[in-house]
């Protein structure tokens, strides 16, 4: 199945089963804004808990914060957002559609990478187990030619971004025959910059109102609270501050479902270190964050690092963790070494000292910062994309049918277990309810008695429930139930008294955390 078709099915699945809805849908929706449904909010909350606990519980020197969305407007002047928070945009004159020039070039590179992967896939089939992928990539003429093209584009692209050369960004698009996906033409306008911040007013009257901004990132709330947290928490360098919160960007080219939205949620941690030690901690957090992703068991080969072509003027290192979405490898998390730019800027604009006295060095200094920043919505999409599966199974009458299943990590699944009475009589529903009432204080469960047991299994597979418990007549005799495993469809008989222990072992986040320490 083509990846475009997989993505369309995934988007439809999110709507059909209550994961994600278009915002204000009854009014024809609001572009690039989405609501999380009854199952989506459970999965999203589990993702946030997994991130927050991994940061705060597993690291004694990391603490939490919840800063306000509204901040003093000088905050965004100091951070550089007022003057330089821009995207390079280009329009196609025929379709009247607007695109980010850098994304068009990144998509071009990705298409060439796709050609290389096709050559590799064909060679694997041809040579079988004896295939040496590294040797093939280093010797095959078509692969080498495409890699040389990628390297050339990369070099030119990075220089244009770093030099803010909008003319050459356009020229790259023209030179490599990039066409508008809608019109199919190369009739492009010049590239120009567009500020992404939403502005609003605070005050009781128009004359007395102040222009403020919906925050475009959560990091600045951490920086302005650096001393508050450090002093009240008696924190010693190095230490980190973690935060989960909403951010807002006026994305003109919002696309790919919840991948790029105007209202989104971030999970960020700013780690404050001694100047000169930032690269050591940059490598530490790169490794820790990649382990966090891979521990979910979505497939190690689906993740990769991508070093930034363009560094922000204040940064000395930046790497993305990318995940292979149905539309290619895309960023889900960034790790950045931000030097002392943020605290120095706020110190200058506020007139307040934002320094740390280091008793070991016996001196004051402005700490350097290493940042990890992950989009909750992108993480949600990557998990849903990795979990969406279709396979062929036999029904009770031996007929083939397609089973749609979400292979969600058990610790993140919205519903941990479904309890199903085999029949709606003979005391089976009552016994099933007893089990639900025993376990519901610790786990999100579902009770379902409608339709055949096979249809109920399929419903639970489709929402990613890892375990189904069937209560039958034998249950009334020996207090055992049948537990069915989503991924294998295997069934086994277990005692009701053991259910809590089985659930704890299978769905606890502790098992994930143990892989990180």
Automatic annotation (TrEMBL):
Q: What's the EC number here?
A: 6.1.1.14
BP GO terms, sorted: diadenosine tetraphosphate biosynthetic process; glycyl-tRNA aminoacylation
UniProt: ATP binding residues: 249-251, 259-264, 331-332, 375-378
Q: Where in the cell is it found?
A: Cytoplasm
- Major location, coarse class? cytoplasm
Extract the Pfam families matched here. HGTP_anticodon (PF03129), tRNA-synt_2b (PF00587)
Which residues of the sequence carry a binding annotation for substrate? 100, 217, 264-268, 371-375
**GO molecular function (one):** ATP binding
Q: Which UniProt keywords apply?
A: Aminoacyl-tRNA synthetase, ATP-binding, Cytoplasm, Ligase, Nucleotide-binding, Protein biosynthesis
Cellular component terms per the entry's GO annotation? cytoplasm; extracellular exosome; microvesicle
Provide the catalytic activity annotation: tRNA(Gly) + glycine + ATP = glycyl-tRNA(Gly) + AMP + diphosphate
Report whether Ligase shows up as a keyword of the record: yes
Q: Where would I find the Aminoacyl-transfer RNA synthetases class-II family profile domain in this sequence? A: 197-421
Source taxon at top rank: Bacteria
Q: Which InterPro entries has this protein been placed in? A: aa-tRNA-synt_IIb (IPR002314), aa-tRNA-synth_II (IPR006195), aa-tRNA-synth_II/BPL/LPL (IPR045864), Anticodon-bd (IPR004154), Anticodon-bd_dom_sf (IPR036621), Gly-tRNA_synthase/POLG2 (IPR027031), Gly_tRNA_ligase_bac (IPR022961), GlyRS-like_core (IPR033731)
Function, in words:
Catalyzes the attachment of glycine to tRNA(Gly).
Q: What is its quaternary makeup?
A: Homodimer.
Q: So what family is this one in?
A: Belongs to the class-II aminoacyl-tRNA synthetase family.
Q: What is this protein called?
A: Glycine--tRNA ligase
Question: Which species expresses this protein natively?
Answer: Saccharicrinis fermentans DSM 9555 = JCM 21142
């Amino acid at each position: 199945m083509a990846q475009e078709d997989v993505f369309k099915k995934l988007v439809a699945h999110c709507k059909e089963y209550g994961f994600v809805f278009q915002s204000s849908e009854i009014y024809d929706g609001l572009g690039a804004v989405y609501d999380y449904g009854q199952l989506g909010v459970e999965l999203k909350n589990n993702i946030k808990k997994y991130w927050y606990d991994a940061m705060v519980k597993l690291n004694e020197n990391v603490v939490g914060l919840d800063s306000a969305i509204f901040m003093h407007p000088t905050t965004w002047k100091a951070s550089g957002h007022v003057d330089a928070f821009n995207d390079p945009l280009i329009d196609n004159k025929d379709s009247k559609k607007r695109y980010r020039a850098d994304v068009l070039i990144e998509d071009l590179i990705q298409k060439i990478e796709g050609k290389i992967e096709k050559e590799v896939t064909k060679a694997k089939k041809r040579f079988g187990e004896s295939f040496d992928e590294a040797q093939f990539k280093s010797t095959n003429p078509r692969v080498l030619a495409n890699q040389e093209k990628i390297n050339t584009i990369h070099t030119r692209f990075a220089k244009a971004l770093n030099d803010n050369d909008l003319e050459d960004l356009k020229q790259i698009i023209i030179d490599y025959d990039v066409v508008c996906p809608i019109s199919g033409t190369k009739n492009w306008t010049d590239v120009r910059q567009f500020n992404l911040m939403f502005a609003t007013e605070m005050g009781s009257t128009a004359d007395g109102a102040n222009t403020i901004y919906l925050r475009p990132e959560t990091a600045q709330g951490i920086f302005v609270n650096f001393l508050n947290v450090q002093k009240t928490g008696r924190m010693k360098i190095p230490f980190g501050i973690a935060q989960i919160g909403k951010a807002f960007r006026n994305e003109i080219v919002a696309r790919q479902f919840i991948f790029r939205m105007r209202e989104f949620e971030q999970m960020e941690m700013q780690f404050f270190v001694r100047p000169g030690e930032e690269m050591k901690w940059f490598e530490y957090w790169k490794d820790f964050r990649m382990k966090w992703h891979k521990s979910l068991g979505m497939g190690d080969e689906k993740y990769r690092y991508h070093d930034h072509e363009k560094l922000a003027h204040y940064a000395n290192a930046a790497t993305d963790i990318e995940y292979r979405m149905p539309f290619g490898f895309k960023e889900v998390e960034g790790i950045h070494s931000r030097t002392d730019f943020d605290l120095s800027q706020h110190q200058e604009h506020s007139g307040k000292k934002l320094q740390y006295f280091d008793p070991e060095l016996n001196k004051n200094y402005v700490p350097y910062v290493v940042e990890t920043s992950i989009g909750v919505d992108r993480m949600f999409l990557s998990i849903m994309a990795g979990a969406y599966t279709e396979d062929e199974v036999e029904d009770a009458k031996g007929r083939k049918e397609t089973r749609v299943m979400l292979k969600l990590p058990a610790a993140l699944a919205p519903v941990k277990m479904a309890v199903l009475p085999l029949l709606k009589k003979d005391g089976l529903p009552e016994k099933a309810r007893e089990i639900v009432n025993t376990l519901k204080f610790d786990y999100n469960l579902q009770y379902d008695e409608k339709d055949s047991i096979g249809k109920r299994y399929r419903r639970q597979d489709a929402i990613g429930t890892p375990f189904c418990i069937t209560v039958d007549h034998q249950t009334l005799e020996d207090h055992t139930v049948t537990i069915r495993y989503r991924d294998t469809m295997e069934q086994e008989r277990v005692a009701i008294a053991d259910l809590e222990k089985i659930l704890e072992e299978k769905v606890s986040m502790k098992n994930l955390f143990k892989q990180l320490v």
